[in-house]
Amino acid sequence: MNTPHAASPALLKSRRSFIQLGAASAAGLTLGFHLPVMAQKGAGSVSQEAVDINAWIRITPNNLVICEVARAEMGQGTSTSLPMMLAEELECNWADVRMEFASVSEHLARNKVYVTFATGGSRGTRDSQAVMRKAGAVAREMLKAAAAQEWGVPVADCVAKAGRISHRSSQRSLTYGVLAAKAAQQPVPTSVRLKAPSEWTLIGQPIPRLDIPAKVDGSAVFGIDVRLPGMLYAAIMQCPVFGGSPATVDDTAVKNRRGVKKVVTGPDFVAVVADNWWRAQQAVKALKVAWDYKGQDKLDDLAVFKLLEAGTQAARPLRQDGDFAKALAEVGAGKVVEAEYFVPYLSHFTLEPQNCTAQVTGDRVEVWAPTQNAEATLAVAAKTAGVPPQNVKVNRPYLGGGFGRRGGFQDFVRQSVQIAQALPGVPVKLLWTREEDMQHDFYRPAALYRQRAVLDAQGQLVAWEAKLASQSILAAIRPESLKNGQDFQAGESFHDMPYQVAHLDVRHGMCDINVPVGFWRSVFHSQNPFARECFLDEVLASAGKDPLQGRLDLLPADSRDRLVLQAVAKAAAWGRAPAKGRVRGLAVQDAYGSYAAAVVELSVSAQKVVTVHKVWVAVDPGQVANIDSAKAQIEGNVVYALSTMFLSEINVRDGRVQQANLGDYPLMQLRQVPQIIPILVPTGAEVWGGMGEPPYAPLTAAVANAIAKATGERLRRNPFSHAGYNLA
């Protein structure tokens, strides 16, 4: 399971044990930055145990380069961009590159050699590119040293190119595969030169993704595809009210059903294990379960809104520049603009519902989990089973969507192990229904925004107050990240806004609401820019200013926000009137090291039917790893954003979620997808931003601003269907 790339049978074998590096070096090469060698006695001989600190590369005798990828692949292309980084410095043929998912067990055994397995926050490439490039450069130099030793020539006379080391004067050459064993014995260089961006031949090119062929021909293995000998299947029913638990379970109606093997009661669920999933799922629906709601069955949308209102009133400062109260008191002939914005809870709605396969045998645990953080998966499995981490093996299939759902919260892993414990030695696949998936998510937080702006007599924005209220994701998952009890992440795009305003007062109120919340694609950058950029449009309109020029006037001359705004405006010909009946809106927002701006062109019928014709999105990520993947991420973000802004919300009544499936949580259809024009404007240097989430940030505001221009109606709440607006 650690090798999802469809290739030869030899490549589908799991990675050889790092303990046997010395004995296996004749067949392949594992390279790292530091390979301390320790003598170990055994069976009458002395072998060498090598522990490599960063073991990213293996080279086979037939010159294949196998790259270990610690980050998860959930459609964003990380499993291609990271091998590109390695191959760029290694100077091998891209056609010879393969990838495997790195083993989290080896990661822990090697003192966390891969740094992190967490894939989220658009960090997959940007946080790993440096170590991957260095790994390739180290391997390149060790191969050159091996060739120099073979020929008795200076290393400086050896050149690495296209998977071979050549001698400059004699033209002799050897492949990496031939040199692998000898290269493994070379001293590891303490420093290596990395290529300058002007020297790159792979990075920044449109490279076909390594995972696509297997996903097209069906050979790719996702979590839901796992099949094991003797495997049983589990269906689950969780307490419909958040925080509740099963009080009594009557299994009389199902325990003698054909194929049913076990009824398992957990702390927050009841599950049925059967010989196929359909039987398990039908049986779990037939159970008679009385739930203990623990007094949490009164919460509804109105109560949530009141808690958010109270949060704005008790909001504490995140940033205070100047004196907003004084500016407000001295408004004189100026003007005050006020507005309230609201966004609802949202579900991740991953295409692949939550699932995990687990087998517990004695004090050993093995899981097969589509996870965004294999290290967290291992930790949860070990804690649940009560075994040491080294007794757990995590297999890593592909993810059928992540968007943050499969990262910090590993509830599906915990439940899977708990169920498997009831059937020792038997692999059990837990698979949630779509309804369970939607009604037991860790949702994007609902949020309320109350804003005021002061314009002076000349129409200049001189003061801005923003009071935000929401639940804190960090308080639930990483409370140590709070600063003086404040969640600065929840206030992103406000407390760090780039606009130059003399008097800026940003506050946030952390709300305690009994709805589980978690990281959702672009996290608070998916919602805060809607309130910020729409309100700014209102302010600029009140001053009679153009949305583009008004923003440029507020941005520093060297601002990357300014550059990306100008790029998207130029591409969309902002100064030229669109076709008759169409209007445009724009917005800008930075996120995860990248800067994104969007222009949306749409038309609105008398019946409030919105046709989105074109969407331009410009992104400055500093550097672009893979142009093709970067453009695909822009396109995916546009579709994801349009669905949520028009169609999606999670409602709560009687302490439980009302939506259950596509019938009441619809996604946009292919016919509704507009023309999308992705624009990449990297500013270069050693700056690497994300691509999986930043394009989302400006989109909702750009659409709302365009609708306001078309109709005069300001949309201050998502989804826009609340105001009667629907996609054509």
What about the largest sheet? 7 strands, mixed
> Which ranges are low-confidence, i.e. pLDDT below 50, for 5 or more consecutive residues?
1-54
Calculate the mean pLDDT score and round it: 91
Q: Please state the overall shape, judged from the principal axes of the Cα atoms.
A: globular
Helicity level: 25-40%
Overall structural class, as computed from helix and strand content, comes to alpha+beta
Rg, rounded, reads 28 Å
Biggest sheet, spatial arrangement of strands: 12-13-10-20-17-18-19
Distance between the termini: 43 Å
Could you give the count of β-strands? 30
- Give the count of helical stretches: 18
What proportion strand? 15-25%
Descriptive account of the structure:
The protein is α+β, with helices and mostly antiparallel strands and 728 residues long. The chain is built from 18 helices and 30 strands. The protein has a seven-stranded mixed β-sheet. A hairpin with a 5-residue loop joins strand 4 and strand 5 (65-69). The two termini are 43 Å apart. Residues 1-54 have low confidence and may be disordered.
